[in-house]
Amino acid sequence: MTFVLDLARPIEANGEKVASITLREPTVGDMIQAMEETDTGVAIKLLTLISGQDEAVIRGLTARDNAKAFVFLGKSMDAVTALRKVKANLDDAPATMTINLRAAIETSGKFCDRLELHEPTLGEIQKADHEEGIKRAVTLVSVVSGQIRAVIERVPMSEFAQASKYVMGFL
Questions:
Q1: Cα pseudo-dihedral 157, 162, 166, 168, rounded to 10
Q2: In terms of Cα–Cα distance, which of 23, 43, 25 is closest to 34?
Q3: What does the alpha-carbon distance between residue 78 and residue 70 come to, in Å, rounded to a whole number?
Q4: Which pLDDT tens digit goes with each residue over 105-155?
Q5: Which of 65, 116, 120, 160 is the most buried (most CB within 10 A)?
């Protein structure tokens, strides 16, 4: 999922004029990196990561351009909010869940096109106990799915939100 943001006014950075930027859906890794910043820094870091633009371009966005970008990001940002609030109803939770990824993720010559999840064991939950927030969810999804963290960090947020809602709902 991408979005082309036509800027209200061109921004000059590094000797080039930028009239539009293309944003892609953030990955889990993008969100982790961005959340290490504070307040406005989160937005700047996230937009830099998902646009591939220099930070100077992002710092030049008007408030209106920034608002348009975050309308596009709303689905992913809603996913982050959901990660903090949603608890699955354990009586209705399936014992397993498969999430098919829109695009396969390649790491070290291996491809992952889906996340196969199951109800986490206490041992699996314990492996994530030392972390908080999204990092805890990433660790738990990684452990439960059997996928390495590098794969999970490249999963788009909208798909990660489904996986996280499932495994975190058991806590």
A1: 20
A2: 43
A3: 11
A4: 999 899 999 999 988 887 888 888 888 889 999 999 999 999 999 999 999
A5: 160
